[in-house]
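Morning!

This is the sequence you dropped in the shared folder:
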Amino acid sequence: MKNQGQNDNWKTLADAVRDELGECATLLSLLDRQQNAILARDTSLLAEISEAILRQNDRIRQFRTTREAMMFSACLALELPKDSKLKDITKALPECLRPLFDALAREGASIRRRIRRKTEMNQRIARRASMCASEMLELVRPGNVTRTYGPKGAMHTSTSLKGRMVHTTV
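The structure's back. Tokens below.
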């Protein structure tokens, strides 16, 4: 490295990546809690956790913006294209910094895969729970169950039980 200023830039970039990964880990934890709430059929907790997930996604977006700004600065300093990925930046860094940034890039890819898988799994579990509730409603009130399909192909089930409308969406 040529000077202390460059050293501080790499530290700041590494910190920005770590901060974003920390927020992603928090999201993963919330997705675990969401799955438990779905399985426990705790709708009030599920609503609370879903709101927390939305807030956490906003936080991740803020941290991603910061990290992207740091990456843009690194690209300028290294004379790389401004849309370079972290792995491209890593290749241009001094040898002593590459293991750190390689590990951060791998961890980022891993945690994003885990978030995607957990989100898809929670959606499948919620759809299945909704289908089970619809089937139970149909058993209880077979003549009063109506199934329709929304514009995106989602099935909606509704029934009237003692003056109340019960809706489920799959």
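Headline: Residues 163-170 have pLDDT under 50 and may be disordered.

More detail when I'm at my desk.
O.
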